[in-house]
Design brief:
Strand order of the largest sheet: 1-5-6-11-10-9-7-8
Strand content: 15-25%
CATH class of the largest domain: Alpha Beta
Helix content: 25-40%
Number of strands: 16
Shape: elongated
Structural class: alpha+beta
Number of domains: 2
Length: about 425
């Protein structure tokens, strides 16, 4: 038997309802803040990710699914969403729109990494991107939006960790301080950290190797190296977040794993044991220089992304997908006609379908199917009911039965459906 590839999962009925609930609630929160949906290609030119995500990142170096097409062009299944949104922003002239331009996306991403709890090689992200404003107010909106999304999903226990890694003026100063502090420990660090030491020492702080972390406990803080503009931006961001009731945890060790981040970086962190070893449920920050790396104009921007698989682990509730009504009849034609009429009236309804031929199965078997369906009402239309122009309605909760004319049946079911919403 052919199995699903390692790192992929089938999202089955019973679980898809939870995903639909997740998607609809996220969509509702995002639309309230005037974020508009953008749908991106699943693959892009490889150069976009090499330049946009950064060639020093694990994503580009180790995790991308890259292939040559029949015209020998190098293409890559998207490993993240931001670079594609930036490319679309440039391709379609969004820079001519009045800022901020606020977009959101949802869809599958692909990274070749070790599968673990809530992390697969094909995974799904929802993300937001806001372009055109460099002030802290838009940072507040984006962070609060992430918080509100969690609350809409019933996720309450998490902290907002916040840091600033500076701009192109002050970040080089911090990098040099970091390198000076780590130089003596370099022989004891993993090969990845040794490689990052020269290319991007900030990414050393994001190392997941436990043996490296012991050397990162007494390092300079990025906040101590901020220039006046970055310091003012960060202080105002802290003030505004506190003002709107989202006081953050200042985490001076927080960096993001992609090269395009600058100034504000943040993560929503939960200690829920269902997440396994990884505790971040949403992460993002500013990427004011990303547009320039792919030949666009300087455009300040900020965004975040969350992993749908990880968030779904925290959702306890699911939607009820049982039909409201189930038709049982000794005559298949009668059942088909009645089910079609009920569905067209906007009521969820089902019936028993004979496994072979056109002859309806015995009443007992059909009633068993009605019970398994989880329907609230079973509509019985036997020979006596057909002759009388009525149906027998069985309340599946208490077993009580009543006669209803066919003419009044639709209204009754519509009223019942309204009460059950």
């Amino acid at each position: 038997m052919i199995q699903a590839p390692r790192g992929t999962v089938d999202i089955l009925p019973g679980e898809t309802e939870k995903w639909q609930l997740l998607e609809s609630r996220l969509r509702s929160v995002l639309s309230r803040s005037n974020y508009r949906e953008i749908r991106l290609p699943v693959f892009e030119h490889t150069e976009l990710f090499k330049r946009g995500v950064g060639e020093t990142t694990d994503i580009v170096n180790k995790e991308m699914y890259t292939f040559n097409d029949k015209s020998d062009r190098s293409l890559t299944l998207r490993p993240e969403g931001t670079a594609g949104v930036v490319r679309a922003y440039l391709s379609h002239g969004f820079s001519r729109l009045s800022p901020p331009v606020k977009l959101w996306y949802c869809g599958p991403m692909f990274r070749y990494e070790r599968p673990q709890t809530g992390r697969q090689r094909q995974f799904h992200q929802t993300g937001v991107e806001a372009f055109g404003s460099d002030g802290p107010a838009i940072d507040v909106e984006v962070i609060v939006l992430a918080v509100d999304c969690m609350h809409a999903l019933g996720i309450e226990k998490f902290d907002v960790h916040l840091n600033s890694i500076g701009c192109n003026v002050c970040r080089p100063v911090f990098k040099e301080k970091l390198k000076e502090a780590l130089r003596q420990h370099l022989p004891n660090l993993c090969t990845d950290c040794q490689d990052r030491f020269e290319r991007n020492p900030l990414r050393m702080l994001d190392c997941k190797n436990g043996s490296c972390q012991q050397y990162f406990t007494d390092l300079p803080s990025s906040l101590s190296s901020l220039c006046q503009d970055c310091r003012q931006h960060f202080d105002e961001l802290l003030r505004l977040l506190t003002l709107v009731g989202v006081p953050p945890v200042v985490n001076e060790r927080l960096v993001r794993g992609l090269d395009y981040y600058g100034r504000t970086v943040f993560e929503l962190i939960s200690d829920d044991p269902r997440l396994g070893a990884q505790s971040t449920i949403c992460a993002g920050g500013r990427y004011d220089y990303l547009m320039e790396t792919i030949d666009g104009p300087h455009t300040p921007a900020i965004g975040w992304a969350l992993g749908m698989e990880r968030i779904s682990l925290l959702l306890d509730e699911s939607s009820n997908t049982s039909p409201l009504a189930f038709v049982v009849s000794t005559v298949s034609d009668v059942a088909v006609e009645l089910v079609t009429k009920i569905r067209r009236a906007g009521v969820a309804c089902d019936m028993d379908y004979p496994p072979t031929g056109t002859t309806a199965r015995p009443f007992k078997r059909q009633l068993q199917q009605a019970d398994k369906s989880g329907a609230s009402w079973t509509i019985i239309r036997g020979e006596d009911e057909i002759a009388a122009g009525e149906v027998t309605l069985k309340n599946m909760a208490d077993g009580s039965q009543t006669k209803v004319s066919v003419e009044k049946l639709i209204g009754f079911l519509q009223e019942s459906a309204g009460k059950s919403v």
